[in-house]
Amino acid sequence: MCGKDHSEEAGSDKEDWKLLEEKLPLSITKVADDPKGHLVYNPPKWASSSVDAKILDLSVQIISNGVLLDTVKLNFKSFYVLGSMDECDFVYKNPQVSRKHFIMHYTRSNSLVIYDLNSKCGTTVNHMRLQPGKYYLLSAGDQIRIGKARMSTRSYIITGHSIFSDLESTHDSKRTAKESDIGKVKRIRKIERELEEELRRTNVDESYYDTNLYMDEYDEYFDAPKLKTKTKSTVLKKADILSNLLKLQRDEVDLLNNWYTLVNEATQGSRDHNEPSIDVELEKVRRSQLNQDKIKIQKQLNNVRDDLEHNFKLLRIASF
């Protein structure tokens, strides 16, 4: 199987998974009967075979020419592979598809990521081309396609429950309410201007009339945004927590991508058997720099993961 079918997490130690590894998740194993070698994906220790169903419960809909071919539940596997090989989890026989094209798996931070396996024709998510060898977050509603535009009729849609979908709903409702209030205020102010103009035309003493009666409660509402913001900031709302979590998940993936880029650059010479042996002193310099970068990124990563854990706790105990 391309994707391993087991429920045990990579790394049994509860804290060990947080440590950065000086190896890449993707490697090529040379075999006698295959000159290209076997592409091997080793899920990192921060990967997860499942997540909290209350937070994420996702599936993949396979659609071709507008027809739903199948729906595959994403659960209880350390990772899922799409490719042209029969043993892959998502098999797609198409000239655009590499033998092993991309993988998807959950993370211990309750997110879903996709990773292009240096495929020949590439992968796009929502029409954005993925850079090979980098992780990208996936969300409910995302559309995955293979290769160049119009070269493949098949798409893969992420569907199911995501607590982060509530964030969009909350933002939409707030935006609608705000637009409604602004529209009401504009109409009232227009009436005031018309009334003032009428009083001027008829030479009536304007001071005798209060043309701002309609605006009393709205002036109070719009003139005190800072006070309201300060009051609301003392209570963390669901939308605030979800927004924090989403940002932290992105920060985590960005830090991991930065780390793997540094590992790739530092170990390129030792992995390329066609290149002459690199200078021993140069190798020492690279390793020393990598160790310094590791300490720095590990510290940043720990801070992000601590914040993730804290916000998930807030999410569980918050009253909505």
From TrEMBL:
SMART domains: FHA
SUPFAM superfamilies named in the record: SMAD/FHA domain
A matching Pfam family: FHA
InterPro entries linked to this entry: Cell_Proc_Reg/RNA_Proc (IPR050923), FHA_dom (IPR000253), SMAD_FHA_dom_sf (IPR008984)
Domain FHA stretches: 80-130
The organism's place on the tree of life at top rank: Eukaryota
Protein's UniProt name: FHA domain-containing protein
Native source species: Theileria orientalis
